[in-house]
Please model this.
Amino acid sequence: MTAPENSPQPSPPAASGGQDFRTFPPGTVTIRCRLDGPLVVELPPDAETLGVTLRVTDHLGGEYPIPAGKRAVALCRCGETKTRPFCDGAHKACGFQAAETVSRAGDGDDGR
Model:
């Protein structure tokens, strides 16, 4: 049996092996760490159908405007952007480096 195109995808197996795959329910939001770049917060393809929306607020609860229908935003990690909290590509010029990866079982790092 094959999964529908927009069905949850299994995460990679743990390095220790033998563990079950984890699946994510419909409506799961993904936060992706880009190599030497921003955090990309992305809604699932079925977000509109499920009523899942994206909202970014400041520390006082004020909402940053996000264009209707936009499924992803890039949040700055380098601190050099002129459009905080959003990425404007400044990380490319300032030499920002970030190469975090998922820690694997037994490597001594719990990923935090």
